[in-house]
Amino acid sequence: MFDRQKRGDRALLVLPQSRGDGDVARRADEFAELVRSAGAEILGSITARIDVPNPRYYIGTGKADEVAEAARALGADLVLIDHLLSPVQERNLEKLLNIRVVDRAGLILDIFAQRARSHEGKLEVELAQLKHLATRLVRGWTHLDAQRGGAIGNRGPGETQLETDRRLLAERVKMLSKRLEKVQTQRGQQRRARLRNTVPRVALVGYTNAGKSTLFNVLTEGEVFAANLLFATLDPTVRKLDGLSCGPAVLADTVGFIRELPHDLVAAFRGTLAEARDADLLLHVSDAADDERERLARVVDGVLEEIDAGDLPQLRVMNKIDLAGLEPRIDRDADGKPTAVWLSAATGQGLELLRQALGELLGGDRVQSELRLPLSAGRLHARLKAAGAIAGEEVDEDGWRLNIDAPRSVIAPLSGGSAAEAALLRNLLAAPEESTL
């Protein structure tokens, strides 16, 4: 093989094109944005028409020779190919070109490795990288030229070294899987705690760079990193969302999706994506100024299906209306239920419409009543407060006078206390003017 150079990231892009690829220019721009997000310098690009994939190189042999000549002429350090390659195809191209070759999956994994910040995110990325590397381990070895076959006398030390590396890699994968399982168990306990508190859960999903993190920040006054980059946010962030007519909710920001997301990455990020799978409502954020938004929305729906979240209720959020020259509005179905909100997270246009739609979808029937509780009912008072059901309260020597304002879906699960408390909550759900324990 060859000594793989570690210097520089001067890249030549290879853009395979086949029937059914949709907007070719859009696909090329997206791949170039991926490359820039990884920190590489783009020297040039070559398109390759693919009618029938070449089993040896994926691209044709003539096109492979053209890529080799262009890489030498430009002084490229690596070739990046906008497609998923088999390990054999990647190895054969590296042997022909004599420089690093990275396919789309490897590039996305590299970006994820740069952006992961939390302990869980780093574990997930490393696990996905090791699984991707497992079938490509042989490429890194340059001293196997002396190994000519499996006959007696021809077995070199390289075979033993490769098998040793495979074993070490498998042990590392096993260890990471155990550590990740422990972290995900802890995160699952946090999610179950939110479930017990019956606080509605909302998750932001969408194609990468649609503006999810910007929207998250303006809704929660958070400080999640937001930039005009693909995969600017990897690690899930959960914050309280106030100002809704249905009471407080929990909002989670999740990793952005993209077409041909590596399967190992989706599998590794199942713990992170569980924030979306366990939500009561998904806010599907799209770029309203993007002509391809419906096709990209189908990509997101495909990933949601893969993580068993495809059947969850969705509210489409058409972001960046300021770039599209549109006005904020709410789209509704025949029953008057909100189906989409058009807004701009950057300028704040339409944010109140989004809060209104969320309140309608999460609230349902509300209980608005006055409740008298003695001081001995402290546990029930605490459960009502934790659920966000108390809009106001006064306390005196006789106990609490509470103003209850919450959805019935929040009040109903709290009746698991004493018989007297259960009876009180049943009366409260009947919505009398005042209930007393």
Automatic annotation (TrEMBL):
PROSITE patterns: G_HFLX. It comes from the Bacteria. Coiled coil: none annotated. Residues 200-366 form the Hflx-type G domain. It is found in: Cytoplasm. GTP binds at residues 206-213, 231-235, 253-256, 319-322. GTPase that associates with the 50S ribosomal subunit and may have a role during protein synthesis or ribosome biogenesis. This is GTPase HflX. The gene is hflX.
